[in-house]
Each structure stands twice: as structure tokens, then as C-alpha cells.
Amino acid sequence: MDVLAARARAQGLLADDAWVAPARLGDEDVLLVKPLTYMNRSGGPVSRLLAASQASPADIVVVVDDVALDLGTIRVRERGSHGGHNGLRSIGEALDTDDYPRVRVGVRRGELPADLAEYVLGEFTEEEVPLVQEAVGAAAEAVECLVLEGAAAAMNRFNGPRP
Q1: pTM above 0.90, yes or no
Q2: Strand ranges (DSSP E) for the chain?
Q3: Terminal-residue alpha carbon distance, the chain
Q4: What is the chain's mean pLDDT, rounded?
């Protein structure tokens, strides 16, 4: 284990297979979780943390990048299918349900190549970076809205074309 991981584990910020950080949204205590597995195996860490915290799938908000949406587009859903997204597929299979909120952040830039892995792991252009930064901020706001105001409010505020 590297030094950074050892420090994180000592501070309680590293589960066996996920970075975990406590946070607060309004009056709500939340955990921010980033699985350390490959995206298509993220269901394991999510299900283990849910079981350890005795939470239900409706208590989580999953945030993913999505090549089915144009760059910068935000899509909030209260539940739904994986839509071909392997991370959502893994979480749905591990939880045995697709009934959990999610925020999808569009990363599609034009036509998609045959090798999607290289595409989503590639660098954004200098011109795209401001749009990506704005989308990350909007996704964070969408999560906060979901937690504090509910799915209907978040969908009304964040789904649809971005100004």
C-alpha cells in the first residue's frame, strides 16, 4: 500500500476499495465515495458501503460520465435502467435494483469512436475544459439539490438544455 493510501486509511478516508469522505449538505450528513475499482466493477464497493452503513439504494446518489449525452449536459433520474453504462450496470447488479438516484454528466464530443475506453479516458481540449468545469459544478449542484430538495426539484432544475 502506498503512503497516500496508508494515510487515508488511518484517517478513515479509505475503505478496502473506495475513497470515503464525510461531508455535510445542509442538515444532512453524507459520505462522498469514489470506488477505486474499474468503473465496470463499482457495484461491489457501493453495495459493501451501503450494507456497512445500513442504508438503502434510495439513499445514494450515483454520479457518472455518459457518452450518450452531449458534453456538459446534466441528466438527473430518480431511478432507471443502466442505459448501456457499465458502471450503472455493475451497481444495479450488485444492489439487485435500479431504484437509486443518479446524475449523468455528458462527455460526448461529436461522433463516438469504436474504442470508447480510450475516448472517455482521453484528455479534453483546451476549448472544452471550461465546459467540463461548468458541468462538474452543475453536477455537484444537482447532487445537492437531490439530497436537500428531492428528485423532482433536481430534475426540473437540471434536466434539459443548458443555457
Answers
A1: no
A2: 18-25, 28-35, 62-70, 74-77, 102-108
A3: 45
A4: 86
CB of 79 closer than 8 Å to CB of 98: yes
The answer to whether 74 and 152 are in contact (CB under 8 A) is no
Grid coordinates of 49: 458501503
Mean pLDDT of the region 123-138: 94
Helix axes 129-149, 151-158, angle to 10 degrees: 150
Sign of CA dihedral 106, 62, 114, 117: positive
Cell matching residue 97: 435494483
For the record, the C-alpha cell of 129 comes out as 475544459
Mean pLDDT over 149-157 rounds to 96
Share of the chain above pLDDT 90, in %: 50
Domains belonging to the chain, first-starting first, are 3-158 (3.40.50.1470)
Q: Which three cell numbers stand for residue 83?
A: 442505459
Query: Distance between CA 2 and CA 15 in Å, rounded?
Result: 14
| Cell numbers given for 74 | 446534466
What is the strand order of the sheet 74-77 is part of?
62-70, 102-108, 74-77
